[in-house]
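Everyone, carefully examine this protein record:
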Amino acid sequence: MMFKIEAYIREEKFEDVKKALDDLNVNGLTVYQVMGCGIQRGYQEIVRGMEVDMQMQPKVKFEIAVSSEEWAEKTVDAIQKAAYTGEIGDGKIFTYEIRSALKIRTKETGYDAIQESE
């Protein structure tokens, strides 16, 4: 069974998480800059002399496909350790089962579609 991992982390933890995934030899990731809010509900900022409530926080979203439950657990653990600060707003990690995968170029499916090949 294959798994997709989505992790939403603080922007300043991007390099730490990327290095943790590189050290684990996790390949095939997609990264987005996103905005969101959780329990911290944003912050206040002074804009042109006025206090403004900023409801959304900048975050980084990682999307990663892995080939087994064992790899999903290793990947989630690496992200959690690298992204941790202990403060509100550290982020969230979600794991989903992948029903199917297709590599467009080679038409490989399933496990073969998410493995690195020549």
Summary: The helical segments are 14-23, 69-83, 111-114. Strands lie at 2-10, 29-36, 43-47, 50-54, 57-66, 91-98. The chain has a mean pLDDT of 90. The radius of gyration is 17 Å.
